[in-house]
């Protein structure tokens, strides 16, 4: 079949196998060109390994540090008639490239929040690569079923305390209108913390530690976004921000519990980037379109792979990591640069439907969005008739 993008709102419901593979190859080539991560990890578990920041972490570990990797993701396999999800094709491409390079690479496809997938992971590690020296926690999910009670919680993207009205770009129609988001109630706040807070990260580390599968000095990181004034009402100081604050609590508790093996848990603050998770957040597409315009002009714009490359080299495996006063690793400093933010804030009130393509980098945002699903990648023949079926041997 000839595969063209089918975009529905903030998601693309299909993906291009060759385009996804080319994206993975591009990130691998970037990582190899950057050279070895000195003192990098050797046995890595990436929870949320198939797209965005988790995929970039897996690639950096494997191709920057020759690490064996076990990944966990939740992706839709392809059939003869339907494409798989982008993360499915990314995983196929990663597994094959890593194995070609002589590295161990296995992937478990299932609900990382469940006991079943945790148990499967422990069993696979025991029979395979053994103890882990880096655990990357990079899940982004709108819901979570508590494994103990069976109750399902949904996260919401809402402000706290009072409603918030702001400009929003409809990426389907390119209309810019004010949207008002009503404040979350207490239950919605608690539910969002339950989904995107630190509880599941702690369950993973407890399970690995309990099974003696963490090596001496093991490190674990979970990813967060803080942002600045423009995004605080809907992110940093909103329901998702509350959930992310809970990661700080979990990091402290985990570091305490890992002290016996000299281990450490750190929250890592990353830049706003187009991923399947972030494109679903109101206001973010417009904010990112402006941000990319400003950062590209400054020559400081980065993608997931650049960010994770710097996270590994400048923070996790550095003797002089960049830390904030809460002990978090920071690689969002170029986005939060005062001049960059001042320029973004100056553009924000001026954007309208007429000047969108001129004063913002919406074109770059759109291209990054389509690339997530393997579309618009250089060197890929999009008129080729190809089968959507790609085999991945998930564990
Ligand atoms: P993403 O949507 O690209 O990746 C999410 C990953 O989680 C995928 O691998 C997916 O398969 C996996 N996943 C989702 N639900 C799962 C489940 N139930 N079981 C197993 N796997 C599951 O998202 P992303 O933007 O890379 O986000 C990763 C982390 O980085 C999140 O914590 C996010 O908040 C954080 N972060 C993102 C940004 C950004 O701008 N994108 C910025 C800073 C921090």
Task: Describe the fold and architecture.
- With 395 residues, this protein is of the alpha/beta class.
- It has a single domain, classed as Rossmann fold.
- The chain is 39% helix and 16% strand.
- It has twelve helices and 13 strands.
- The chain has a seven-stranded parallel beta sheet with strand order 5-4-3-6-11-12-13, sandwiched between helices. Strands 1-2 form a two-stranded antiparallel ribbon. Strands 7-8 form a two-stranded antiparallel ribbon.
- It is globular.
- It starts with 6 loop residues before the first strand and ends in a 23-residue tail after the last helix.
- The mean pLDDT is 96.
- Nicotinamide-adenine-dinucleotide binds next to helix 2, strand 4 and strand 11.
What is the secondary structure topology, with strand pairs?
Elements: E1 7-8, E2 11-12, H1 17-34, E3 43-47, H2 52-65, E4 68-73, H3 86-100, E5 105-109, H4 115-126, E6 132-137, E7 143-145, E8 152-154, E9 164-170, E10 175-181, H5 186-196, H6 199-210, E11 214-224, H7 239-257, E12 264-269, H8 284-298, H9 304-316, E13 329-330, H10 338-347, H11 356-359, H12 362-372
Parallel strand pairs: 3-4, 3-6, 4-5, 6-11, 11-12, 12-13
Antiparallel strand pairs: 1-2, 7-8, 9-10
The chain binds nicotinamide-adenine-dinucleotide.
Nicotinamide-adenine-dinucleotide binds next to helix 2, strand 4 and strand 11.
